[in-house]
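FAQ
Q: What does a multi-component entry look like?
A: The components come first, one per line:
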Amino acid sequence: MSWTSWMPVLVLLSSLVTALVIFCLPENRHITRGLLNLVGAVIKILLVGVMVIGVEEGMTFEARYTLLPGVDFVLRADGMAMFFAGLSSVLWLFTTLYAIGYLENSPNRSRFFGFFSLCVTSTMGIALAGNLFTFLLFYELLTLSTWPLVVHRGTEKALAAGRTYLMYTLTGGAVLLGGVLWLHGLVGDVDFREGGVLRDMPLALHGQFSLIFAVLIVGLAVKAAMVPLHGWLPLAMVAPAPVSALLHAVAVVKAGAFGIIRVVYDLYGIEFAASLNLLWPLGMMAAITILYASMRALAQSELKKRLAYSTISQVSYIVLGISLFGPIGTIGALVHLLHQGFMKITLFFCAGNYAETLGIHDIKDLDGAGKRMPLTSAAFTLGAFGMIGAPPLAGFISKWFLGVGAVNAGMTWALWVLVASSLLNAAYFLPIVHRLWFRPRRAEGWPKEQQLSQRFETSGWLLWPTVATALTIIGAGVLAGMPFSPLSWAQLVAAREYLL
Amino acid sequence: MMSSVWLVAGSGLVLIGLTGFLLTPDLLRRLLAFHITGSGALLLVLALAGADASGDKSIVPALLVFTGMLVGLAATLLALWLLRRARQLALHRAAHTDADPGS
Amino acid sequence: MTGVSAALHTPYIWPHVWLILLPLLAALVSTGLNRSRTHFPALLPWGQGLLLLCWNALTLWLWLGGVEGGVNETTTRITFAPLVGPTLVWTLLTDGPALIMALLTTWIGTATLVHTGLRPDAASRPSAPAAFWPLAWLLMATLNLIWLGADLLTLYIGVEALGLLAVAMIGLNNTPGAVDAALRYLFATLLGSLAYLVGAGLLFGHYGTLELATLAGQVSANGATAAGFGLMLAGLALKAAVFPLHGWLPAAHASALLPVSVLHAALVIKASVFVMLRHWLAFGPAFADTALPLLVGALGAVAILWGSIMALQQTRLKLLIAWSTIAQTGYLLVGFPLLLQGDAALQQLVLQGILYQMVAHGLAKAALFMTAGHLVTATGSDRIDQLTGTGRHLPLTLLTLGLAGVSLMGMPPSAGFVAKWLLASGAIGSGQVIWLVVLLAGGLLSATYILRLLRQAFREGPEQDVFQHPSRVEKMTAFLLALMTLLLGLMAIPLLSLITLPGGGIAP
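Then the predicted structure of the entire assembly, as tokens:
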């Protein structure tokens, strides 16, 4: 094995080894555990950074190993993989920092951080999976490693949510397995390839390909929380805030969305999928999800619940972008995968900060919180405006490319969906921002205030990751034209997908 | 033909044994019923395997039956051991309950 | 002159016979060790440890030697030439399936014996009665006899002796429930053997031979064959607790001593299914066009469904695991109809799947039963609702439970997933999508009862650790078994490459 094939393996090991060591650590070794986590996260970012540069220069990083007769375990770093891997590795670092602060003085931390690292390993595996089998392997591992995080608190509510979560995701996994097996039975072991691979298969199989597509998408849509398979997500809110942040911004929903991207672009190929008439039903599903979830978000009075419905709607932007045939739509979809991650993780960090510092869970209690926690509230405001799509923030870039893509693809209805959803975004985010800054503080005081820091509004562990991710929202928007920005990387990937 | 006599006798014994086996809940009687079934089954084996297509006298049927008999013996010993243990345990428990009426 | 001469057909004749001889010898030595228990207490653990080491070395050598030399199949013929009467040739066959099962037996046997106690103080604090050791070794010898058996008489002796040994071991527990369950099991296994014996006699009467390989070459679908084959299958199904003949199993598993439950669920049940498989490969093709394959597969599907539903309703830990065994045996049967479909490559895939499922389930179930024992010790109760809080204070035990559970659910990465993948590939390849649905639904059903345990354990209980912890050796053996299900899920080729069908497929 040359060093290029070791790279993807090392990326996985950097968090897998961390997980295993943490599982073995005694509960009270907090500092060692924190250090291990950070070292692992930094190593991962460095490794991913090397691969990003390599992929840009046209190198391939591939590790292959025959797991079963006729089935290979493949890890490969291509442009698409690096997109998701980059997001995961950066956000893992921030979330780890945040989680160390968030879980201070709570029990079962070895278990929590162990599964946390395992969850990141699965996410990286999903990013680097070079064929559908490997993808499935990590997709299921993700289900298993996130369940202990969802039920971490051990309360009845958490356990019930965990049960629903598994009912949805395990069933989705079984459906996906069925689709993978079906496809494997027809064409054998096929690797993901830019531009797709199934187009070259015999014409007689094309009818079955359409059916398999539907099966695969249903299996993936469960994790991507597309209506009507979204029921688990709002319930999973009972998990600790860093978990919600990770589930929403990176791991679970993105795994579903990324899977759809892989299936459409690198398995079927966008042109082939379009020629089979598979894209418009996908687009319709996404449009329904976007509008329905935004409406549901309006009705929520709990902050995390509102954010959850907002996630459901925002992730389907990615799916909508995929369904728009044309490079501009693709860029929109890809870039939103990253931008939504940064924006949503910021919003969840803020929600966690409000809950930890002031005991706020309901939106109505947020009145006047801007003065008490200015930095957190500023971060929240940035995230909210980003979600609405205000220039020059990250969300604007996504929506711009999605909109132009819709027009270019001749799907004007998609443009109207975007407009309507932006209005709805504004309708459920602006009142919160208004409460934060312009309403007086409630007379009865904060629900449960804790003095977490002498100098800052809240503990530094909670505050600085929030501020950092908030800054990336501006950065990704303002610096979109720079090399290695999400946008320019998305353009690179889209160019390779359409073989321009 | 001789073998059909064995066949009828064996089937009859198996039927009688099985009926007894299914009808009685008492374990000792079940053991006896099993023995009748077993004898019938061994007769059946002799009848069926003896009618070798080639007509050669093979010792294989005898081996089968011999093994079956050995197994029956071992099974009987095992069953009797278990039955005795069951009785002992029941007695032990009864003695315990008598001596300690509070429990 | 009376003599026993062994014909050397391959350079490796003795190692294969030693698979049976070594455990037999160990049983004898164990009896001796038990006698010396009072005078030389250290002798028992050391002696057992040495025996286990030899046994592991033997099977490992056979495995690695077999793969390297490309010799996956060895026939051993032992000739008995008595002074009077005809000469008898006794054939033992070590093929891939036999070798895999012998490996599984070694792994699980070793783990169980180590778990039962190789501690220096084992003599003063025995966790099993003295009779356990020789009986366990006899059980291993019998199991190996079954894996290597190539004719109906050997297989009959094997399954019969196995049944009696298993009954005796279940009866070792000093509770009325265990003795009662042992008696019920005895009658079930005896009836099963009788059916098998009559079936064997019938087939001999028709074909004049008991050798499976010869029978497979001559078999045709006529009334006598159907009756004989049917009787043997039914008898074995009763022994393997195949639905609807499973009634004896839950009580037997739940009331036996812990190591006995482990051996029984992981190996003894498998032996009957393995013999079914041997017969299926020989006689099945003649009945491929009848309703028989569908019937067997359907019984497997119902077993998965019913076993899982019953497992979900149990309030006691060991009963839940026992019902899960019934469900998991169903997976093996679902593979049976697939063995008769499609081309040779596909059949080989399915055979690999069935055997891998045996290995996966054996390891996972052994780990699960051991874990159950630990949890019963820890909480002082067999009730599932007493597990509250164990997740926090017994993390390794729960991790073991989780890993074993993942394999039972057939989720990747685990040996159970590999088995499911192979079986499902076979189902898809031969166009029998219904079995695919059964396999996928079965995985979800097993997830429901496994997660019920995990959920209860994750419930937050007492702040302080009030649980009685099992010893480190016990925890680690169970964990290593569970870890093996994970490793075999990541490295499937070394075991799977042992299984190639002779001539690339089943004889037509």
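Q: Is there any commentary attached?
A: Sometimes. For this entry: The first strand of chain C starts at residue 3 and ends at 7.
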